[in-house]
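Objective 1.3, modelling of assemblies. Example input:
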Amino acid sequence: MARDKLLLIPGPSPVLPRILDRLAAPTVSHVSPVMAADLKEALANLKRIVFCEHGEAFVVAGAGTLSMEMALVNAAAPGDRVLVLSQGYFGDRMAAVGRAFGLNVELIQSPWGKVVPPSDVAAALGKADYKIVAATHVDTATGSCAPIEAYAAVARRAGALTIVDGVCATGGVAERMDAWGIDVILTAAQKCFGAPPGLAILVLSERAMDKRKGLPSVPAYYADVLRWLPVMNDPAKYFSTPCVNEIRAFAEATRIILEEGVEARFRRHALFARAVRAGLSALGFSFLTDPSCLADTLSVVIYPAGVEDGAFRARLSEKGVIVAGGLAQTAGRVFRMGHMGNLTREQLEFALGALEETLADLGARPASGAAVAAARTVLEV
Ligand code: PMP
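Predicted structure (tokens):
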């Protein structure tokens, strides 16, 4: 059998055998004690990972886009003014989702590779009565990481709820829900959690839950958190059949995070990001993202002159490493490399070696071990 390739796209990230084993376990009843125990534990662990003491956690079959819908549908009343902060591709999606549900969406878009300054958010909130501020934490197209703590503080002062898209951040970059005053974190399983895709994951603050409870209805059925709340509180109850195996796999992924330690995991993501960038810089690559807002979970890497995207990624894949191409206006100019989830140092060094060999194969520079050597100067301090 061919050796598995190392999947370093910005999600899905590689899934550890321990987590895959839960997928392969015999499917149990969705209302059985074993499933109830796993779901309860997954929800409790999730709240620890986002530092939410009160509030409610939800895990349902779907993906990040469903969690975006669930966040907006439950935290916003029809016609509410919603300020969406976009530093790339997925903020635009948040705006589109809001508009699809009849919300009054205003978008502030930063240049790609930068983030919206909190002062711009404060200025916008001073001009109109926004009920919601929605921001992408890490934009997966641009590799920029937004100042969520500052956004939430500004929103709180203006009396707006803060929704954070943590799909490319939660579990890899700090999101301190209670301390920062975040009202909704929406996320998915396939990136920093290192679990397989297939889940919409949300945590709502008490304020966000109160907002939903104050709405007579929402323009959704499956995505209505009040239909799911009884199941999340008591998984022996039924609303819609949960994806038993994916949820049990996710429970295992959250255990692995807590075994590593949440803060240690954030530190590892930060360290690996610096090591990857040191290695890539040593090879002559540069980065799309402004140095002031580089994300710890992925890098958006600009090719040196003369290196062609398709040929590069195809050759790299032959060497056992998969990275992603650029999205929208960056297509062909960059590749995107995820470094999130349960990656090991050995995997990173293997990838950097393969990247260097690929450049050498394409005649761009001789291989000399420079990438791994540069990464080690970061990893070994
Ligand atoms: N938000 C962000 C920041 C993402 O990176 C993605 C997926 N790449 C999404 C939302 C949408 O998630 P999904 O593809 O799981 O629907």
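The mean pLDDT is 97.
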